[in-house]
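Office hours follow-up: a student asked to see two folded examples consecutively, so here they are.
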Amino acid sequence: MNEPGRTRRSGAEEPERAATRSGGRRARRGQAAGEARADAGARADPATRADAATRADAAGRADAAARADAGGRALRRGAVSGAVPPRRSALRARSFLGTLKALDALSAAGAQVSVRVADIDSGEAVLVGDDHLTLPVAGLGVVPLLIEVAAQIEAGTLDPLQIIERTAVDPVTVGGLWHQLKAPALPVSDLAVLAAAASDATAANALLARVGLDAVRARVEQIGLVKTALLDGFRDTRGPDDAPHVALASTGELAALFAALVNAHVVSPAVSAQVSEWLSLNQDLALVGASTALDPFAHDDDRHGLLFVNKTGRADGIRAEAGVIAGPRAGAAYALIVCFDDLSVAHRVRAHEAFRALGLDLMEYVC
């Protein structure tokens, strides 16, 4: 894992002291040069001795003043151009130590870990660890499905008010609410809300049956994802003839995908906005979101200006999450996947603690 370098002093304080010291040294060197020239003038012809001393002294003072002023101008240019890092950058550099410690402990215990955090504005990587690996992500596979649903709605080939019967798909109870509701049918737009907000397996399967798995795969390729794939719908039991996982992805692609969604670069601004709106309703704030102190049931318009858009994936021995968090100081796109031996509650808790450590460090980064 790569961690940004740490600084002992704030980005604003250290360059200012350095420039001040540099200006002082240059001023003293200029004064010494002037004195040397004055001494040389004193040993010259008596007729020109006084004039030489005067010129040397004036030159020394001018040289010292010019160098001191150059140091001041360098400091001012640094403050204006950004060469002098702001105090906030130094604070960011000290972040994610808790995440690193938690993920190192998981790796030492035999878990497979992949993580990426990137600044939402610059795209600069903040934390990277095996972000190229393709790993199972369970319910995170709903994200490319929602992108395809929104794209078909925008294209006019899918009516958001089209009614879909629950009996159109095989019963599944691994997650969600629809299988507990009395309503036997719902419109496409409501199913998208259930799939995004409640990780509803039945709703996701109904959407997948309507738009088609081939269309989702083609959309994934069209938006440039090569390590992300929706393999299958949700099942209560997976047999030998079924795909081994719902979906696969890498944290590198997931973090980039969420950043592109929030920045309106996926398919079209309208599609990006629609998918981001659906995902902003996600009620699973038990992993990274646990550190945000947001209301799981109403956090799409936080009074403190904290933006949080995320999606989680859960299966036996799999925990995955990707999203975007933005606060008053910065914004970050993140993704974390942990594949572990789900042998006991303690193993599960240890995996969850790593996500919460990431949440704490993200909050320090953006707030």
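And the second, which I mentioned at the end of office hours:
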Amino acid sequence: MSRPTGTAPAAAGGPGAPPPAPAPAGPAGPDAAELRRRARRSRRYRRDLRWSPYAFVAPFLLFFLAFGLFPLLYTGWASLHRVSLTDPTHMEWVGLRNYTRLWDDEFFWNALRNTFTIGVISTVPQLAMALGLAHLLNYRLRASTFWRVAVLTPYATSIAAATLVFALLFGRDYGMINWVLGQLGVDAVDWQNGHWSSQLAVSTIVIWRWTGYNALIYLAAMQAVPHDLYESAALDGASRWQQFRHVTIPSLRPTILFTAVVSTIGATQLFGEPLLFSGSAGATGGSDHQYQTLGLYLYEQGWINLHLGRASAIAWTMFLILLLIAAVNWLIARRLRKSQ
């Protein structure tokens, strides 16, 4: 056999072998500057995640400190001094004298009684009517959005405008209410000077303004009640009234309690309606203080009689009353939770 021509390949690693090809280089790692940039971004992210919520609520906290907490603490300090509104920087320490004198102040107790009676007369019918309106709005009605906006319109009305209109309606000589009563054979009522009549008139303004607002709160709660409960009650033969009594009202107990507490707090702070109901009476709440509330009595002491220390004591007394209402609300809510 003839020998093949050509040169045989050299053995691997032999002296005649070509040098090995260099291995492909992998991706280059981050340099020191890139690592520092990543570390700074990570620190900024952690600081942003930690402090951003505080930055978002900071405007509210600043306004609360300036217009909420500071006036509260200042009135608490002023209530322990004899201080006049004409010279608020001059304070004379009297301790609890401004509080103890309220026990012997017949005008304070009169204002407290008026606040209680007006609160009851306005709150109970208001919440009952709001519950009925919400029950009607909960059913499918034509133009339901229109009716829901309509019941909220009184809430959006100015207190001053509403009170002045109602003062004309309850006028003794030319008021529409007395005209209607005259058509029914009833003598004219002196709404502004009578004791119970004036309180009833002021309560009517409160009822008119807040019934629609509470009705929408009840409506939102009613829409959260499961429809299965109504269907089961209907299958058992319950009428709409029975469904309302045995399904709707028990389901709305927390909401009813909430609106009752909020309405009670609003009644305790009632001010605009009785102040503007009779333009001549002003802060006195009628010729015989027949509808002067705690808010009006505070205003009279502080801005009419210029006794800033006494007014501060009344304000803190009202604050303590609200704390008592909050405690009662907590106890009732706790009992309701245990009963469920």
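Two things to take away from it. Residues 1-14 have pLDDT under 50 and may be disordered. The longest strand covers residues 87-93.
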